[in-house]
Design a protein that fits this description.
Number of domains: 2
Distance between the termini: 48 Å
Helix content: over 70%
Largest sheet: none
CATH class of the largest domain: Mainly Alpha
Number of strands: 0
Mean pLDDT: 87
Shape: globular
Structural class: mainly alpha
CATH topology of the largest domain: Hypothetical Protein Yqey, Chain: A, domain1
CATH architecture of the largest domain: Orthogonal Bundle
Length: 157
């Protein structure tokens, strides 16, 4: 067996550990992640992309989406004075975040953007799509693409 576990294997191992420890909150969150992955796998099969399901990059993007959804829900709950529900959402964010790679700092992100622009020879705003595609292929889960888009646009303008 390889020493580096896939994301799916890490999630399955974490689920088993949480169930053995009778940690219901963690188990619930891990089941939620598992269900989202199964839904995505089924959708991928429906699109004719084979039986193996989605790859690591798409799984990381899915986990990032789950984190953003929970952060938004927590913000709404806090604004509505429902702090106990906001805390539950933030606890789920902490569990999901365990499976995401470390987020790049602003300086690291700027360096990666500059390197990618140089490597692709991008020099106008029309090249933004190529730059974004390259970054998504290589750094999904490490960069916040909503923020990165503005930085790329700024550099290519």
């Amino acid at each position: 067996m390889s020493p580096v576990l896939s994301l799916r294997e890490r999630l399955n191992d974490a689920m088993k550990e949480a169930m053995k420890a009778r940690d219901s909150a963690r188990t619930s969150t891990l089941r939620l992640i598992s269900a989202a992955i199964k839904d995505r796998d089924i959708a991928a099969r429906g699109e004719g992309r084979g039986e193996e399901g989605v790859g690591e990059t798409e799984l990381l993007a899915l986990l990032g989406k789950l984190v953003k959804q929970r952060q938004e829900s927590a913000r709404i709950y806090e604004e509505g004075g429902r702090l106990e529900l906001a805390e539950k959402e933030l606890a789920e964010v902490r569990v999901i975040s365990e499976f995401l790679p470390r987020q790049m700092s602003d300086d690291e992100a700027a360096a990666v953007i500059d390197q990618t622009i140089a490597a692709l020879g991008a020099n106008s705003i029309r090249d933004m799509g190529r730059v974004m595609a390259e970054l998504k292929a290589n750094y999904t889960g490490q960069l916040d693409f909503a923020v990165i888009g503005a930085k790329i646009r700024e550099k290519l303008a």
